[in-house]
Structure formats: C-alpha cells, structure tokens
Predict the structure.
Amino acid sequence: MKRFMPILMLMAMLLTMFGCGGSGSSAVPTTTITGTVFAGPATGATVTAKTTAGVVVATTSVAADANGAFSIAIPTAALAGDLIFETSGAGATFTDEATGASTNLGTLSVFVPAGTLFAGANVTLDPSSTIVQKLIAGGKTRTAAFTAFSSSFGYKPDFTIRPAFANVSSAATTPQRLAGFRAAAFSQLTNDLKDPATSTGIGGAAKQFELLQAIADDLSDGVLDGRKSGGTVVKTASNFTIPEDILNQYNAALISFQNSSSNKSKLTPAQINVPISGKVSLTPTYRVEYVPPTGGEFVSADTFQLKITNRIDGTPATGLASSIVLNPYMVMGAMGGGTHWPNAVTEISPGVYSGTVHYSMETYWGLDMYWKLYVFVGSETAFFYPRVAAFDNMDTVSVSFYNSSDTTTGTSKRRYRLWRDGLSAGAGGKYNLTVFLSTTDGSGSYGSITSSNGYPVYPGQSWTTAPLALSSVKVQAYDGTAWVDLTPVGTTGQFTASGLGLTGGIQGKVYVRLIINGTTYTNANTGAAWDSSDATTSNGVQSFTVTP
C-alpha cells in the first residue's frame, strides 16, 4: 500500500486540476454544441446540460439571442452518455404564435441519446422535444416515447432541426418550416383549449408549459385522452382539467393556425400531415364516442357506432336517433366539399347508435384532402377526422346521372349519385349488389356549418329547390340481354340487384342506369338527350366495377 501511495496522490492531484478547469493544456476537453430554444424564438434563455441522473455538466455562459440561438461547451467525455438539455425559462421571453404577444418562457427540454452529438451539432428545445423528454423521464424508453407521441400528433420530433418562426416569412428549408409550424400548433392549442361544458380556457399563453407536462402525463399510457393509466384525470399545475377530447381539440388548433393570417410558413396544406382522429368528442351536453367500422374506414359505405352519454352523470343518452344528423365533409385545401348523409341513424341499444355514411374518396397524406365527420346532435356538434382508405382493387365508389330539365338553380343540373352500398354472396354462386341513390336539395345549416344536403332518392320523394315530385324512380342493371329493375329497399334510397353472374376474386362490371318519372338520365353533366343506340355504351349508362 505504501508503495502505491505516491501514485494515488498524483492521480488525485490530476483529477482535482482537471475537475477545476485548470488552464492551458490542463483544461478539460470540451465540444461546443449549438442549439435553439423555441416556443417561438426565445430570448434570454439559459440552457443547462445534465446527465439523466441530474448531474449538471455544463451551462451556457451567454443567454440565447433574439432567435433563440445558443452555444454551450460540453465536456467531451460527457457526450458518451445520455444528456438532457433544459431551460427553466427564468428571465426569458418569446413571441406567442397564436396571439403575437410577448410571453414569459417556461420549461423546455430535450433528451439527447449518447454518442449523437459532435462539434457544431444542433440541439433544439421545443414543445415536441419537451413532451418526449418528459415521457422518457417518466420511465418510457426513447422508442416507446416516440411511439406514444407520433400516435397522437402524426410525426416524430427531430431535435437536430433548427425551427423557422412560423409567424415570419423566411428562406428556410421545408423541415425547418414544419418544425416551426408544429411548435406554433401547441401555441394555438393553448389559446383554443377549453372545457366544452363551461368554455373555460387554460389561462393564457404562458400556461403552454404546464400543458406540455400535462400532455406527457396524459400520454404515459400511450393514449391522448385526458386520462392516465387507471383512468385518473389529468390536470395542469394550475388545476385545469385536460378534456377527454384534447386530441380533436389539438387537430382543430392545428388547422386553425394553418388557416390563420399569422401563418407565414409558406407550407402548402399537402406538406402538413393529416390529423389523427381522436375517438371522443365533447359537446356541452354529451360525450360522443366514435367506434369505427371493423377493419377501419373505406371509401363508399361505412357503418359505424356512436356511443353517446350525458356528461352530467355519465348515463346513456337515449332517444336521440331522430335528432342526429351525419355530415362527412371532404376538406380540400381552401375549398370544401360535402357528400350526402342518409340520416339512417338507429339506436341499437341504450345510448348506442348505428350510422352509415358514404365517402367519395380516400384521405390523402396532408391537409390538402382530409375528411371531417360532423355529428350534429340537435343543436350541438361533435366532430371526428376519419382516415378513409381506398378499395384495394380500385372498385367503383359511385357514379353520377343528370337530366337537362332537372335543375337546382338556373341551369345547374341536379347531380344524382349512385353509391356502392354493399356486395354479398347470393344463392347459386351468384352475387347481390346493393346501391344507394342520393342527391342534393337546397342547403342545411347546423351551427356554423352550411353545406349541400344529401337526400335519399326513392318513389314519393320530392324536392323543394326547383320543385320536382318523384312519382317514379327506377334503378336498372343490364343482365346481358335486358334491363332489369333493382328492388327498392323501402324509402331508404337503397336498391338491390340480385343474381349477378360475377366470379369470386375477379373484377367484373355491372351496367346500371337511372330512370326518374319515365325519363332516362344521362351520365354526363351536359344538355344532351339520352342516346339509346346501345345497351352498354349510350350516354344513359354507367358501369360499376366490382370485385366479389
């Protein structure tokens, strides 16, 4: 032991010298990392780097500048371990994107895995990185944290990207614009988030940082629904209760900022990911839970369930079938287009309702084309964002018919849409095809939503816009030798063709036509009269491509 004592003393002296910073060649080697504190750009923020055990390894000597930029010298040896970069926000401010107000900064953080940093690397502390870091601090692996986050928000945060301020036009890259836009969405959510029953908000822009912690608490069970594991209600530090429909409120905030004059990001709607739908929407009176069809939503007919309870006591809300109106609305960039709703809503058990809508096209990647399903319950509105997929075989969704004398306003011809409603095996190896016939008549207003109505078409129906009584409605299919009437299903607008000679697994065609009040309608929105020269090629015929 005596022999090794001088060596131990020397090592202790060296460690003391290096640990105290030393000078010249005795200084601890460091690596300078740059970064951004961003909620919008945060001015005056001090950033600390520490180990996951909480040991501080470095602190910025100069606070973040007006762009939120900072640099920090990290002991090079510390880069071999996981690090957390954090700012408490003390003395720092940022411009809130939703309100434009100068706001006090709160806590932002980011988890940086071992071995990922190098000289000049960027580290961004923003709302997304903060939620992920808090999920990891709560016990999730980094992979599990990303999965929980992306399942609700639709993207994976990347701390290496330096965000561009969405409120100011700049020459930034698309990933930088997206990072800044996504930060702005949390600002908009803080501004818009309310308890639907009382319209009470979270309490101002500075509460965003409490909200980020609450979102991480909420996502601890992998689902953003205002509840932790075991169903415990999530509250912010200021005691605001996170509503169960927070995911849908986030979607609405994302879209609100995208459409606002504050958004100068230059991102096109197609560059912003489509909303991921929550399954619960709250109205002042009701909790509406959307149960999608088995296997998910597809174009054409979709039948789903709505479980509706009274918010005041949680009991089933019964007897609402006649007051529920469904409106699937395809949002297309700056434009919008609604399809019909059949109003075929039935109560299948106390507070559980079955509804059917028809989607005309699939949901695309971005905010250029996505579905918003409005559920009007009397005067109150719930909404969802179904992710609608295409048929695997590119089968026909719908076909259209017109007549030059059947107009809505002026010379605008009323469009009759024949939708695929279902294809099933019938007797003798044959198949049955059910179609749904709808059209528009005037417009309907529900709260702030005004859209062309869709109505089922059947004998005895009548239109009020350019009045027309439908004394006779026939949908026919060609069986190879003659036109055969499809069987109407009551006054639902449905018609069924039976005994179709199709082959299982092989795509085939069914030729159809529409006859109203004795007039055969055409397949084009023109003034041309029906040409009956050929059974399957005249302008009075459409074809359904179907795969049994």
Remarks:
- The longest strand covers residues 300-310.
